């Protein structure tokens, strides 16, 4: 999507749809005047309440309208970034539904709105762009007409251009925010695409390749460890999960270093299970296809590292992605097996479906040992129990550092990606004790997302600034849940916001 910021009149901007945002309180005062000046009938205002995300499309009746089609766009109270985001998501969704290619938004009120939301003009512009790209996102590349790239060229359903019409005084700030928003939005889109690709289109190798491509394009180093190297390293967790698979595992390390001195070393670890059948502890078949999304953590980390590089953040950011599928077969690991992880810690595999923690264990220890990071954050679709606890809209947050937990929570509040902190009390260790190994990978009934986090904690080798984000719920919108099903890109924006705060 091309994004431009212009100061001209609506006529000069010339779009398929010209959107006028109004908060509920501004509606009465400003809407009549605005509509009349554009040559539109004001009676329609009876049907428009200004609720956040409400969109009413109007067609010109007058002789010389400033735009052939306008949209009234509700901002609700207009007091939060969320209102602003909701509005832009619905506008883009409407434009896609109507197959409109060029959309403009009147942003003359953005300076006032910045005051009432307590955010900067640039932050509002960024949220607007992110919302428009997210709301206009559709995954249709596996439809028959699209598989042949040549045939489908130029026929995308998505919006091709977004124009923000502004007053000259805020032009620079809106341009700056829009440019940042565009980077985050494109990284989110990349993550969603990867999540939506099913197991027969995305294997461990493909995740590694996506990282290599991104690194080449955006100027950061990527190293891919293949099966032989993973064996030499002794990553017993990743190898055990991969035992039943036809496809070899990969361990991909993304390494972005800023031009100047780095203010911090940040390690981001993402679970990359390209398809989770459960292995020998096979999952029930109903909705098993959704387990193509079990690499959402990996996609999130890839998106966040790419964004850090494109934004030139003054941080050393390392992304670590262990990837494999989890399949049953004659060669698969079996319940009761005892494996030795990269750390040397032995694990009794109580359940082969608790595979995410096995591959993350190796990556966490490697991150700590090799990079001595100031902070380690892992992102993973780790447990169904987290969905039971917090639902589909909220991620579970676990951290051994109060300050870090608060920073992650605040970043999520800012980006609209909600996380809620859960405990890491040692009493939960009882549940993952093993009779035969150092630890068991399952904790029995109760507090499943906490025992999973307690398991991970054993592999950070006493690091004092670690967080684990369980995104099993919000990473994927199941069928029937909303307008657009599938990968959400959850976490990309949150991690970028967090890293910007540290910059
Ligand atoms: N990938 C799943 C967790 C998951 C469930 C993600 C639903 C998204 C939606 C994970 O590997 C898993 O299967 N966890 C088990 C752990 C159990 C066997 C201890 C679970 O949550 O049931
Ligand atoms: Zn599993
Ligand atoms: Zn899994």
Short description:
The chain is an alpha/beta fold and 503 residues long. It has two domains: 2-168, Leucine Aminopeptidase, subunit E, domain 1; 188-502, Aminopeptidase (3-Layer(aba) Sandwich), CATH 3.40.630.
Task: Please outline the helices and strands.
Blueprint: E1 2-6, H1 10-13, E2 17-22, H2 24-37, E3 55-59, E4 69-74, H3 81-97, E5 102-106, H4 110-117, H5 121-135, H6 144-147, H7 149-152, E6 161-165, H8 171-196, H9 204-218, E7 221-225, H10 227-233, H11 236-242, E8 250-256, E9 265-270, E10 272-276, H12 296-311, E11 316-326, E12 338-340, E13 346-348, H13 356-371, E14 375-380, H14 384-390, E15 395-399, H15 402-415, E16 419-421, E17 439-440, H16 448-457, E18 466-470, E19 476-477, E20 486-487, H17 492-501
Parallel strand pairs: 1-6, 2-4, 2-5, 5-6, 9-11, 9-14, 10-11, 13-17, 14-18, 15-16
Antiparallel strand pairs: 3-4, 7-8, 8-11, 12-13, 15-18, 19-20
Bound molecules: ligand BES and zinc ion (2 copies).
Number of strands: 20
DSSP strand (E) fraction?
15-25%
- Whole-number count of domains: 2
Number of helices: 17
Say what the CATH topology of the largest domain is: Aminopeptidase
CATH-defined superfamily of the largest domain: Zn peptidases
Radius of gyration: 24 Å
Helix percent reads: 25-40%
Give the overall silhouette: elongated
């Amino acid at each position: 999507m091309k994004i431009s910021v212009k100061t001209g009149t609506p006529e000069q901007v010339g779009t398929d749809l010209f959107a006028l945002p109004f908060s509920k309180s501004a509606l009465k005062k400003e809407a009549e005047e605005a509509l009349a000046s554009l040559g539109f009938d004001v009676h329609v205002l009876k049907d428009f309440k200004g609720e956040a995300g409400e969109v009413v499309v109007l067609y010109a009746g007058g002789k010389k309208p400033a735009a052939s089609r306008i949209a009234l766009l509700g901002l609700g109270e207009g007091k939060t970034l969320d209102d602003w985001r909701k509005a832009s998501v619905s506008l883009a969704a409407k434009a896609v539904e109507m197959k409109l290619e060029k959309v403009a938004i009147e942003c003359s009120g953005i300076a006032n709105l910045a005051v009432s939301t307590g955010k900067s003009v640039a932050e509002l512009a960024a949220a607007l762009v992110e919302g428009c790209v997210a709301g206009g996102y559709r995954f249709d590349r596996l439809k028959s007409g699209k598989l042949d790239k040549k045939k489908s060229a130029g026929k995308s359903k998505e919006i091709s251009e977004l124009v923000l019409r502004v007053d000259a005084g805020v032009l620079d700030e809106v341009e700056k925010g829009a440019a940042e928003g565009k980077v985050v939005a494109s990284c989110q889109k990349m993550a969603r695409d990867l999540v939506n690709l099913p197991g027969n289109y995305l294997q461990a190798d493909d995740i590694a390749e996506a990282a290599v491509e991104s690194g080449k394009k955006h100027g950061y180093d990527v190293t891919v460890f293949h099966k032989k190297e993973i064996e030499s390293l002794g990553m017993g967790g990743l190898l055990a999960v991969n035992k039943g698979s036809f496809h070899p595992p990969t361990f991909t390390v993304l390494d972005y270093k800023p031009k100047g001195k780095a203010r911090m070393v940040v390690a981001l670890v993402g679970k990359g299970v390209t398809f989770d059948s459960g292995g020998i502890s096979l999952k029930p078949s109903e909705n098993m296809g959704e387990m193509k999304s079990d690499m959402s953590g990996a996609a999130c980390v890839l998106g966040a590292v790419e964004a850090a590089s494109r934004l030139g953040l003054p941080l050393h950011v390392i992304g670590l992605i262990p990837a494999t599928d989890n399949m049953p077969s004659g060669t698969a690991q079996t319940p009761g097996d005892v494996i030795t992880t990269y750390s040397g810690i032995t694990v009794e595999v109580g359940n082969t479906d608790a595979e995410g923690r096995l591959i993350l264990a190796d990556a966490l220890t490697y991150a700590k040992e090799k990079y001595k990071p100031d902070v380690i954050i892992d992102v993973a679709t780790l447990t169904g129990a987290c969905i039971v606890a917090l639902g589909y809209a909220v991620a579970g947050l676990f951290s051994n550092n109060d300050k870090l937990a608060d920073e992650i929570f605040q970043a999520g509040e800012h980006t609209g990606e909600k996380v809620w902190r859960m405990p890491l009390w040692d009493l939960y260790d009882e549940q993952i004790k093993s009779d035969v190994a150092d630890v068991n990978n399952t904790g029995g009934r109760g507090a499943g997302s906490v025992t999973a986090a307690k398991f991970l904690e054993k592999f950070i080798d006493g690091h004092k600034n670690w967080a684990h984000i369980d995104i099993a719920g919000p990473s994927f919108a199941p069928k029937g849940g909303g307008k657009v099903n599938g990968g959400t890109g959850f976490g990309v924006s949150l991690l970028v916001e967090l890293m910007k705060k540290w910059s």
